[in-house]
Amino acid sequence: MWIATVVNIDWPKNGNDQVEKQKKDFIEILDFYHDLNFNAAIVQIRTAGDAFYKTEQAPWSKYLTGKEGKAPENFDNPLKWMIAETHKRGMEFHAWLNPYRSTFDLDTLTLSEQHDFYQHPDWMLKYGKKYYYNPGLPEVQQKLTDVIEEVVVNYHVDAIHFDDYFYPYKIKNEVFNDSLAFQTYGLENQDLEDWRRSNVDSLVKKAHQIIKKNKPWVQFGISPFGVWKNKSTDPSGSDTKAGQTTYEDLYADPLLWMEKGWLDYVVPQVYWSMDYAPASHRIITQWWSEKAENTNLYIGNGAYKIKNNADKAWKRKKEIPKQLSLARLTEQIKGNVFFSAKSLAEKHEKISKKLKQQFYKYPTQNPVGQKKIKRSLLPLTIKPVEFRDRELEFCVLHEDTIPRFLHIYTINKSIPDQKQLIGKHYLSVEQNHICSQINLTKKQLKNDIGVSLIDAYGNESPTQTIYQSKKTTK
User: Fold this and answer.
1) What is the CA radius of gyration of the chain?
2) pLDDT-based confidence at 99, cuts 50/70/90?
3) What does pLDDT average to over the chain?
4) Contact between residue 422 and residue 37 where contact means Cβ atoms under 8 Å apart
5) What does the CA dihedral 392, 396, 400, 405 come to, rounded to 10 degrees?
6) What is the pLDDT of residue 472?
7) pLDDT tens-place string over residues 260-314
8) Preceding omega of 462 cis (within 30 degrees of 0)
9) CA distance 369 to 187
10) At residue 474, does pLDDT exceed 60?
11) Taking the CA of residue 216 as centre, how many other CA atoms within 13 Å lie in the half-sphere pointing to its CB?
12) Residue 104 and residue 36: Cα distance in Å, rounded?
């Protein structure tokens, strides 16, 4: 799920809330999705030229502290805390950055002096009711690359994530005035639109390179607007009638990024209902499944529309389950991402219950990036195991340098290769041991219980039995 912080969509509920309330609210979101066996939180840590962590690159976000540039009180290193709490629940933490949005409105008096609006006014372009970084300036690309590198180097993030905001969505009768940069940096015989796309391509390529240079196992993912092009303007586009498109209006070309191998995953935002005439979820999902290559494909689902949209399909409790069923039946699709976290966490209890029963009954292994490096993992060292009243307690030691998860399985005694993941723990780099306890059902007790280590590239150690059932095989 996406946890949006801009204008306090999901968290914090208010930048002026006491720290203890902010922590409690974040944990409630995590606990809700942990119970649903979700395995990754995509958390927005840069919304508009600001930051949810201490840095010289940007001021503290007003969405965290109530006033831009004001440091949080009694909240030491919020980003480190968020990552730790997310990992504690067996989920990956994907750091979501909005690269080009500089302000969320035109009230520049509330901006900190540290904000790039004041530090680098020549980088800014006003468009509509916001200011944007000019994507065509090499200095802007370098700044954003530096921002990404700082996060990757200093924090145990599992991925860097961009959303769909590249060049801004077009506004009728308004001009995005980057003509001077185009005159300066545009190539001979290159038109404005191709130049703009090349600027976005350049940032995506640089982001990928800087991430992999520092930590090759950290993934890079992007969630573009759902429609690349309509078939009416390009035969290879989708059979849709979207008012704006990723390629022609936002100057973003995810098909190229996949072809070049610059992404570990792509999450098109397919926020329409299954049979919505102008842009059908069914049609768009199928289109992406045929186009995705060199990358993991997930589908972005608009959970925020449940019982909250003019399209009557969203009033039906089966709309999201239908979308998930479609994804499960499409081989190329490796997962789903919900926008936004509060959409289920704060309401729609019946739908959440149905999702758990039908789709999210068990944990699942996290997908790994595209540049998988094969490594041999050493066996785990198992400390004494205790068992009482269906509760299994155990400790394990490992010697791996880039661990990611400890998996707990039930193992079918009759068919040893058949195992079911029933629990998982995140292992951070500095954590060479973990003690755990798991409550087993009567059904699970009829099987052996085993554990294995998964590293950051998805390599798995041999599964080692920590509990043998008394059930005998024939």
Assistant:
1) 23
2) very high
3) 96
4) no
5) 20
6) 52
7) 999 999 999 999 999 999 999 999 999 999 999 999 999 999 999 999 999 999 9
8) no
9) 34
10) no
11) 9
12) 33
Task: Check whether 384 has a pLDDT greater than 90.
Answer: no
* C-alpha to C-alpha distance for 212 and 219, rounded to whole angstroms: 8
Burial tier of 210 (Cβ tally within 10 Å: 0-12, 13-18, 19+): buried
What pLDDT, on a 0 to 100 scale, did the predictor assign at position 473? 47
Supply the pTM of this predicted model: 0.97
Are 227 and 236 spatial neighbours (Cβ–Cβ below 8 Å)? no
* Alpha carbon 438 to chain centroid, angstroms: 28
Residue 413 has pLDDT above 60, yes or no: yes
Residues whose CB falls within 8 Å of the CB of residue 365, separated by 6 or more in sequence, listed in order:
405, 407, 421, 424, 454, 458
Beta strands (DSSP E) in 316-473 are 333-338, 381-382, 386-388, 391-397, 403-411, 419-426, 433-439, 448-455, 464-467
Alpha helices in 67-125 (DSSP H): 78-88, 116-119
Residue 122 CB burial class (10 angstroms; 0-12, 13-18, ≥19): exposed
Length of the chain: 474
| Rounded-to-5 percentages of helix, strand, coil across the chain | 30, 20, 50
Q: How far apart are CA 114 and CA 71, in angstroms?
A: 13
Q: Which amino acid is at 221?
A: G
Q: Which pair of tokens denotes residue 190?
A: 């290159």
Cα–Cα distances (Å) from 40 to 73, 75, 367, in that order, read 28, 23, 10
Question: pLDDT digit string (tens) for 349-364?
Answer: 999 999 999 999 999 9
Separation CA 352–CA 84 (nearest Å):
25
- Whether the CA torsion 82, 84, 87, 92 is positive or negative: it is positive
Supply 317's token pair: 């409790």
3-state SS, residue 351:
helix
The strand pairing partners of 84, in sequence order, are: none
Cβ-based burial of 423 (10 A; exposed 0-12, middle 13-18, buried ≥19): buried
| The predicted structure's pLDDT at residue 360 | 97
CA angle 381, 382, 388 (to 5 degrees): 170
Q: Are 110 and 62 a contacting pair, CB within 8 Å? A: yes
